[in-house]
Q: What sequence folds into this?
């Protein structure tokens, strides 16, 4: 991975005017994507993600700002130059945008039309792409005969047909089942690794982000409110929105709520504490729970746990009830903190009925 | 044309005249004159075609129309022979005589300009209206006196016989009256065969330069024959009469 | 045969005329369809791509095309015949006859067809155009590979409509000696009160109309893959 | 004024005629548009809902409507005028005059409009119809609240096309004494070689055509919320 | 929750014929949904989920089989009766199917047209629905001006407008960010609880299933291959496909793979064992890891963990390295098994390069 910027958006504004109303979909956004990045873009529905990425290949002219892709000033390109530039930027649309009049194979082969490939080479390539997305059987069908997820896979195959250097993927796996999603993400990761494909990945599936992105930007109301490398964002989210997303994705919020509802049955008192433990990286190597018992006789019961490995870095998130003598509990607490683990005592208030 | 010695002569006619011209065409062929009949439906076309030498002679108009045309288009089209005299008639299915026409009745007239003017003249001579006589091609707008307050409606010439069921009277061109097989009993007024009607004698016309063309004269002669007379009699049943 | 002789007393004697008129109608319709089809298609596509928000947005060209189409559509056909006679003469050497009729027929139907094409293509999904743009397709590719392809079912339906209107229009060709079935129906049958000729001519026209509609419907259904 | 007197020597003397002809054209066009609009719309909708796969699929009704439309479209207008005279008399009491012209104008343009509507509505997304069905909308609701609403931009564009064709068609109304601008242009101006009258009449037609197109375009754009 | 069947599909087949080809999208499916169920339907893209649910309100007539909804034989209903029946079945379409010509408010209000409500009542209801899905601001906009997720929320609001007894939701949250998804699921759960709304929920988001479904059916190639209540399916999936979905969703597969890659660094030998522990329900209440140390001196280090609470039942899935004397390890193993915990020893083979 070199550190060369392949996409550089600077101070982008996009404003829509519709019959008197103006909507500013993107506000003063700057974003640098480096070659080889798999850059995740997440955010609320309507945050401006789709609008932002459409600026990259000038499907959407920004109201203000500059766009540099592959060293070219995209906004200044002549139509012909723009067309050439676009062939290197694959795009998967949120609404698929398949051609109803063409078969699946023809849809996938569309970008290759007018290119240098012979008819046979084209067919071969299309067959290969269809195979990659698991639609070989549907080659001769038309989009109207496909299921939602199948359409989406056609769109993915089409976006890859031109062997783009950059792939802009707008919710490319949102209609896919977990297994198919996983195989598509695998594919993108492989293309990224083997061919250096740069990917801008809009998604709302935090699992997808965790699985393949190395960087993440979080958008809210047209602005990027937080950005950084994957592990940092997931381990130390700063903005409440980011935290919300991560928590909702890992379901820690829901778990906490459920635990609170049962709080009475847990019999919390001086000898029991309900705590949330969060840690990143090496700290997990130490067998924490055993250690707490060994050292302080504190017994930890995991009520909720999520320990995962992001970009080779383990990330832990546990809700446990610690049981022990009050002073030992405090010592254990201290031990955790010293080990770089963030400890939060949870105070179940009366469970609110949501 | 087939004949190498003489070129084919193109004759512009109205479609309804085909039945008169077909036998002539046949006879001429025996005489070594090839003619091609070009049929029109619009009175404006045959003269334009003549000037542009797309037809060599035409036979559809009366002298009056030719004069008007020459004036308007600064052309030199001349008559090289008379064909028929086709007096206009006022027909009615509703009344027996002109005198029976009541206040506010409707009368239809052909809407092509010359027949329209001619029909108005006819109605004038029938004493139904008065028109501005100075105008070459009067329209209902030029009626100066309309005591009966008649509603005069120009319609497509082919519609005039059909309008008899709606209007009190209709001024109908001969050819249409003949085609519609209107009984003579429905004629309530007829154009007088006098000097005033002379301009309405139909003619065969050509460009002035070809005035003396031998072949064309042969064609005129072929038209002005006994056979044609019989045909005119047969088809027009006395409504139109040979004018040569 | 007896039946025919009984109900079509005049028509049976005019076999040659019917054959010729049918030929003329087919000839005028076919040639006009091809020429007006190409011109109308070009103008229709031109209107679509240059319209505000089109892929080759161009206010000037759009307005010119738009005005030309409106202008041509404002002229009654009979007058068009006369007005463009000089042009007709220039193109086919004469302003009368079946071939000469084709020029005004083209000018009379091309603008109409252009509007039909414009309407048909304005239904093509903007998103699909964007998808084509995003893979680097230029205007030509988008016109031929997207607009004309995605709009095909509607183009076929509009073409059927135009073609049938065109057959109607050829009836007016009689005015300049163009002949044809419509002319036979009007100037022989109708003007001469030979109703059987009118009906016979109309029956043939009817067969043509039904055939065109049928073929068009089948074809449109065949290329329509939206459901 | 001098300019007008110079270039339109005959036309200036015919102010009344022009006013009247314009009135007649507007009258015929308007009434025909309303009546043919309703009939054509009804038939077009009928074709759409009864077509194979339609919400009221019905082979028999579809075929009848389809055949009637084709039949009417096969008849040259001039002949239509004559053929339906008895019907015209039944409806308006006479077969000649401006009002009488409306009957054949309606029959001449309604089937055309029906096809336009059919084409326009066949572009309405099947999925949206299903969405309406899924909330329990019946055929009437789907027709009025979905088809006619979703298809509106295209319906407007098709209506503009039909309306302009209709103005053209009114020129033929002269045949049965309907008058109008087209008749003025043809039977007064053109037949009497008064070119200025023809041109003046055509200019007024042109203004109508442009106005209709402009209003239609603006309206269609206003109700088109697809982009 | 009564046990009354509200939807009963019996032996449903759906076959499509397209120009010579036939595709059997649904094969011999029987499914009973009881009043008050939130029934999840999951399966591969193209498995026939959308086709199946379209049979419920007869948008799709099945080729064979019977459909009973609310005691009515849906296939035998007259058009008018069908319409009445449909007003009680809300449907959220995978492709939204919004009316481009209507504003958002009018789209949502569409089902109320021609109903008994006065204009004001309708407006009020629409306003309330828009508020529920967070689109009050967009009321006067048109669908083309909305983002993907916003469109989807309009479709959700529309489906609820008629106060249906049954809601068929075809990927209703697939275009939504985690937070919005969560709030929509909350909403459905509340309607279910408070008004007894029955929901058939097609989704590929296993989190959504976990969060609100009480039953799940898994479809594959047109057939339902497994079905049952949520906890059973998630704790003891029988079919490999179901296991796959669950594992992919909890990312246990990915975690295992990552751990295997680092296996060498774990220094596995007689004294270390890499094991996967899976348990359901009460077993989690015992503080397992502490217990293992207390009893056998076995130290467990959690490399990956997912402990969650489904329908008030905790579900645990841990990958740990256990360290201790070989015989103690075996004893610990036995202890786990006796406690009803499923223990699997993981054998890291040489990590395959995916
Ligand atoms: N053509 C348009 N006219 C007016 N407003 C628009 C238009 N397109 C988008 N918007 C508005 O801009 C905002 C951003 O839309 P955008 O599609 O970029 O959101 P998004 O982040 O992609 O959301 P989602 O995750 O739901 O797809 C939204 O509030 C939307 O309503
Ligand atoms: N109209 C049609 N004609 C032919 N085949 C069809 C048609 N509709 C669906 N199919 C096929 O039926 C199968 C099931 O489609 P369906 O839409 O039910 O899948 P799904 O389970 O909803 O998938 P997804 O999760 O991708 O939406 C697919 O293989 C699809 O290609
Ligand atoms: Mg988006
Ligand atoms: Mg589906």
A:
């Amino acid at each position: 991975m070199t550190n060369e910027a392949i996409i550089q958006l600077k101070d982008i504004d996009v404003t829509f005017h519709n019959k008197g109303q103006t909507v500013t979909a993107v506000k003063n956004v700057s974003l640098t994507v480096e070659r080889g990045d798999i850059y995740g873009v997440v955010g609320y529905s309507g945050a401006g993600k789709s609008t932002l990425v459409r600026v990259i290949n000038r499907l959407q002219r920004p109201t203000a700002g500059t766009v540099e892709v592959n060293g070219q000033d995209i906004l200044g390109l002549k139509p012909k130059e723009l067309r050439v530039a676009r062939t290197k930027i694959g795009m998967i649309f949120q609404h698929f945008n398949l051609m109803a009049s063409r078969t699946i194979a023809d849809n996938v082969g569309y970008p290759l039309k007018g290119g240098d490939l012979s008819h046979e080479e084209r067919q071969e390539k299309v067959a290969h792409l269809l195979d990659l997305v698991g639609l070989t059987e549907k080659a001769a069908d038309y989009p109207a005969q496909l299921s939602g997820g199948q359409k989406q896979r056609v769109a993915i195959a089409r976006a890859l047909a031109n062997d783009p250097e950059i792939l802009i993927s707008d919710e490319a796996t949102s209609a896919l089942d977990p297994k198919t999603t996983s195989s598509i993400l695998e594919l993108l990761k492989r293309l990224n690794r083997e061919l250096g494909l740069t990917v801008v990945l809009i998604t709302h599936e935090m699992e997808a982000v965790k699985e393949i992105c190395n960087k993440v930007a979080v958008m809210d109301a047209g602005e990027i409110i937080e950005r950084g490398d994957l592990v940092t964002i997931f381990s130390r989210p700063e903005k409440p929105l980011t935290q919300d997303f991560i928590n909702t994705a890992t379901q820690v919020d829901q778990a906490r709520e459920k635990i609170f509802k049962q709080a009475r049955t847990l019999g919390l008192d001086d000898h029991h504490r309900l705590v949330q433990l969060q840690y990143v990286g090496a700290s997990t190597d130490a067998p924490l729970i055993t250690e707490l018992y060994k050292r302080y006789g504190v017994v930890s019961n995991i009520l909720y746990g999520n320990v995962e490995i992001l970009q080779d870095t383990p990330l832990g998130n546990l809700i446990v009830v610690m049981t022990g003598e009050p002073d030992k509990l405090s010592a254990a607490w201290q031990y955790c903190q010293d080990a770089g683990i963030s400890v939060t005592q949870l105070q179940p208030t009366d469970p609110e009925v949501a | 044309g087939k004949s190498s010695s003489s070129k084919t002569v193109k004759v512009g006619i109205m479609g309804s005249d085909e039945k008169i011209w077909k036998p002539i065409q046949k006879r001429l062929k025996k005489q070594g004159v090839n003619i091609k009949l070009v049929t029109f439906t619009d009175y404006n076309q045959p003269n334009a075609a003549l000037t542009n030498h797309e037809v060599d002679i035409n036979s559809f108009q009366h002298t009056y129309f030719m004069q008007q045309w020459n004036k308007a288009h600064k052309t030199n089209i001349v008559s090289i022979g008379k064909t028929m005299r086709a007096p206009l008639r006022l027909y009615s299915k509703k009344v027996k005589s002109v005198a029976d026409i009541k206040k506010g009745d409707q009368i239809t007239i052909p809407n092509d300009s010359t027949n329209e003017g001619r029909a108005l003249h006819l109605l004038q001579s029938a004493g139904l209206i008065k028109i501005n006589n100075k105008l070459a091609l009067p329209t209902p707008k030029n009626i100066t006196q309309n005591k009966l307050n008649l509603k005069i409606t120009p319609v497509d010439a082919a519609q005039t016989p059909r309008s008899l069921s709606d209007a009190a009277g209709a001024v109908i061109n001969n050819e249409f009256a003949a085609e519609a097989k209107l009984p003579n009993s429905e004629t309530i007024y007829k154009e007088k065969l006098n000097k005033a009607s002379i301009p309405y004698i139909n003619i065969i016309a050509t460009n002035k330069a070809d005035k003396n063309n031998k072949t064309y004269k042969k064609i005129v002669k072929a038209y002005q024959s006994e056979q044609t007379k019989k045909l005119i009699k047969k088809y027009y049943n006395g409504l139109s009469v040979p004018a040569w | 045969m007896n039946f025919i002789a009984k109900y079509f007393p005049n028509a049976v004697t005019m076999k040659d005329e019917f054959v010729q008129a049918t030929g003329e109608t087919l000839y005028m319709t076919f040639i006009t369809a091809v020429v007006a089809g190409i011109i109308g298609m070009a103008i229709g596509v031109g209107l679509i791509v240059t319209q505000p928000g089109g892929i080759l947005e161009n206010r000037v060209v759009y307005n010119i095309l738009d005005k030309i189409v409106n202008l041509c559509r404002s002229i009654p056909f009979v007058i068009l015949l006369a007005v463009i006679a000089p042009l007709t003469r220039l193109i086919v050497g004469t302003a009368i006859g079946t071939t000469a009729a084709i020029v005004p027929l083209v000018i009379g139907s091309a603008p109409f067809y252009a509007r039909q094409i414009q309407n048909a293509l304005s239904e093509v999904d903007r998103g699909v155009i964007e998808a084509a743009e995003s893979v680097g397709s230029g205007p030509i590719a988008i016109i031929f590979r997207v607009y004309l392809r995605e709009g095909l079912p509607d183009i076929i339906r509009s073409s059927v409509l135009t073609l049938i209107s065109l057959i109607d229009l050829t009836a007016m060709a009689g005015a300049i000696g163009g002949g044809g079935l419509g002319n036979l129906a009007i100037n022989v049958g109708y003007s001469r009160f030979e109703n059987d000729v009118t009906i016979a001519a109309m029956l043939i026209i009817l067969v043509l109309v039904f055939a065109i509609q049928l073929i068009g419907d089948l074809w449109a259904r065949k290329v329509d893959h939206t459901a």
Q: What stands out?
A: Residues A 145-150, 175; E 16, 18, 23, 25, 43, 45-51, 94 surround adenosine-5'-triphosphate (ligand 2) (CB under 6 Å).
